[in-house]
Amino acid sequence: MTTPRPPFPPAIRPSSGKRLAGAALWLGSCMLLASPVWCAEHKEVAHKKSHTTSTKNTHAPSTPQMDHLPVRGRQVRSVQQAQAAVEAARAQHKAMEMEKARQAAAIEASRLKNNAAQAAAAQARNQALALSAASVTATSQLHDTEQQISDLSDRISSIRDEQTQLQASLRNNARALVPILPLAERLSLYPSDTLLAAPVPQGDAVTGFLVLRGLSRQMEVQAQAMRAQQARLSAVDTELSAQYATLAGLKQTQSQQRDAVRQQAAQARIAQKQASKVALSAAQQLQAATQRASSLQDAIARLDALENKARDALQREIAAAEQAHQAERVRAARQQEASLNGNEGPGLAARSSGSGAQPVAGRLISGWGAPSDSGPATGMTYRTPPGASVRAPCSGSVDFAGAFRSYGQMVILNCGRHYRFVLAGLSELSVDTAQSLTKGAPLGHMNATGSSATLFIQLRNGQKTVNPAPFL
């Protein structure tokens, strides 16, 4: 006799057991994963499955196969599925963490690379500035030597003029004495016979004697003057020989100093070229903008426009990065802006008494505002000795270096605060566009052939010309 199975209590019916097992598995998965999103999704799925199962159990009779399936087996299979889901979620979470770590490492590597590039560029700029500063002393010594040569050349020219005048005076005096020299010689040898050679009245003889006496005194005075002129001429010749020897020594010193300055300037140019590709790009933009200019004023305007454009672009980049909460972009833009402000230069004081050291040896032949064919002069013009070196009148960066229109080789030196020196008429340049310089550093040399050359210097504040004399 088969004993009938007692009915399941309400608390342990199959449908209720399934729901309890599903809830337990869901809770265990949530505890293992600790992921709110996964738990919420699987909670909803578990709820739907539970509701569906409950509905099926209410409206459909259980089949004999389901009734004979052990509850323990169904629970084990559900646990295995849950464990598989947990492992998959763990793997996905681990992959996400690895991806985040990889991205963070890439960002850090990029930041380090950017910092290294900026540090290398800053180091190269500092090296270029150090080399430029080191060349100031040698350039100053060369400038002093060239100024001494210029002054000595002027002194030699003055001595030669005096020599020429003395020689001409002696020749004229000698020419005037030639007719009366035989008479003077005869009077000195035979005074009585000379006076009585021709019979004349006694009064005329006395008059002739007095005339000859006065002429003799005049000739004596003239002879003394000629002897003094001859002595002075001999002294001038001696002084001229000494000055020529001094000049030769100065020229030898100048040659050695000029070679040293050229080497130091070349090292500074090489260091600047190695600064950064960004600087090279900026140099190309500056050079191209200036070359396209139709006039000097147009060139200055284009340089100002490039500077303002760069600043506006940086401000827009900073604003966009801050709005997007991108700290790295903001930091890079701020650093670039600081670098731009740092490279802007000190500018020029509103009032300056000048240092008294002009940027080139020689003498001023035309000052600012002097009358010219095209109106008042907008700059200063110096007459320089051949091959004279030209020095930077301020610290700053080179906006342009090269040939420009009829100005010859020209340098536009940005002193900062919209002050720019324009130096034109050079024959050889020692700097490149975008190169950083210190005051007194070499810019180039004047023409070495011919007796002299002229250097034009102009100072601009924006589009206005300013008298450069107080700042030199």
Q: Can you put this structure into words, describing what you see?
A:
The structure is a single chain. This protein has 472 residues and is an alpha+beta fold. It folds into three domains: 11-59 and 71-107; 129-273; 277-471, Glucose Permease (Domain IIA) (Distorted Sandwich). Helices cover 64% and strands 12% of the residues. The chain is built from ten helices and eleven strands. It has helices at residues 14-33, 36-59, 64-68, 71-177, 181-189, 191-195, 202-273, 277-291, 296-323, 327-342; strands spanning 363-366, 380-384, 389-391, 396-403, 409-416, 419-426, 428-429, 436-437, 442-445, 453-461, 464-466. Strands 1, 2, 4, 5, 6, 8, 10 and 11 form an eight-stranded antiparallel β-sheet that branches. It has a three-stranded antiparallel β-sheet with strand order 3-9-7. Helix 9 runs antiparallel to helix 10 (327-342). It is rod-shaped, with a radius of gyration of 50 Å.
